[in-house]
Design brief:
Layout: H1 15-32, E1 36-42, H2 47-53, E2 61-67, E3 73-76, H3 83-89, E4 94-97, H4 101-111, E5 116-120, H5 127-136, E6 138-142, H6 154-176, E7 181-182, H7 183-196, E8 201-207, E9 220-221, E10 225-233, E11 236-244, H8 247-263, E12 270-275, E13 283-284, E14 295-302, E15 309-317, E16 322-324
Parallel strand pairs: 1-5, 3-4, 5-6
Antiparallel strand pairs: 1-2, 2-3, 7-9, 8-10, 10-11, 12-13, 12-14, 14-15, 15-16
Helix pairs in contact: 4-5, 6-7
Length: 325
Amino acid sequence: MKRGWITWDKTELPPSAFETRLNVVRKSLAERQLPAAVVYTDIWKSNRARHFSNLMPYWNRALLVIPRDAAPILICGLSPRVYPWIRSVTILDEIRPGANLGAQLIQMCSEKNWPKIGVLDLHQLPNDLFAPIGAAIETVDLPSSTLALSCPDEFELAMHRHAAKMTRELLEEELRKPCDGVDYQLAGRVERTFRRAGVEDLVVLFTTGKTPPRPASGSMLHGNFSVALAVEYRGHWVKIARPRTDPEGLAAIRAEFDAALQDLDPGGNRLICETLSGPYPYEAQEPRSIVPGSILALHVESPSPAGRLFFGDTCVRGSGGAELL
């Protein structure tokens, strides 16, 4: 299931957070003398629209339109029957149906006399939208970097921090229980535990040390093995990996992970780094190319006599290294 039950706890993430973020966009629009900005979103590329509106689609795709002097508008490929739910979990009020998103956006621009618009990361727009919109309206690229999207604000950090803490605690609790058996059994237990804790999306991967982490496949879990999780909580992704091994093995790989935090230099470690601050939930990236302030997932792999072990966690990139969230 791509996403479970989506709700909005306004004590956890207040509406003021979105108004602050929208003001950054409006300031950029004013500087460029643009009337509106457009943000593309779908189930895989949902971070940006969620950041500005709390929209997290179950399926299909949409365009979030942010006028310089008015409330955001959603052009949505979803059925109108879900619009009341969308309004209940986002800051959005005006929602326009749009089986053809490009045509609907062109019509809106005509209605509002917008001769040109800004598009967030214009050249990442799907071609079936890029071509007709560009042919009908003058479009200006608004790079993510100009809107400080790579550097999360205090609300974003707090949500990721909560998700990371919850994921660590729940996973480590599961690994303290008897785990011998088929990987499907542990996958089911983990799925139930995390869904009941309120996560919308969950990916559970296993390895007994002979392969990288992969989906459950009927392998027997005994002795040393590792579990890697990708967890979405209120639209905020974290990635955590933990081995189940003896205390000495756990201490050794944790020491390797702590060393990698300091300088993000692979050195003798096999280091995997992913950015969680980009438009997609997570993307592999060279550690030193990640912008300071970004949220990242960092994983180390360590050989052991009984097979490879994996340890990973979610961090924020500092000027010299990374800090655990």
